[in-house]
Amino acid sequence: MGTTSTATGNVEASESLDFDAIVIGAGVSGLYQLYKLRELGLRVRVFEAGSGVGGTWHWNRYPGARFDSESDTYGYSFSQELLDEWDWSERFAAQPETERYLNYVADKFDLRATSSSTAASSRHSTGTRRGAGS
Fold this sequence. Notes:
This protein is α/β, with parallel strands linked by helices. The chain contains 6 helices and 5 strands; from the N terminus they run ββαβαβαααβα. 34% of the residues lie in helices and 15% in strands.
C-alpha cells in the first residue's frame, strides 16, 4: 500500500484511510459536522488547508471583517453549556472574536484531534481554474 501525508507525518494508507466519513474544511460547518458525526459514533477525519480551525474566519483577516448576521445566529446550539459560557462582545462580531470562538469550541469539544492540515487538491494551490465537469 502507498502512504499518505497527515498532520503527524506519513503513515500507511490502510491506517490513514480507515474512516467512516471525511469532512472537507474546519470552518463553522466543518466543525459542526465533525461534532455530529462523532456523536453518531463514526470515525471521522477533517482535512483543512489552513493551519488551524475557522475556515473563512481563519483566512479573511482584512480590516472590518465581521458577521453580516447577529453573532448569536453563528453560535452552536448543540450545547447549552457552550451557549451559557460564551458571551459575544458585539451584536455583529468581528473576525478576531469569531476565530477565538471557533478555537474555543474546537478545544472544548476536542475537535482538533482529527484535523489534518492538508490541502484537498494541488490544483487549488496553483491558481488553476477549471470549469464545471473538469
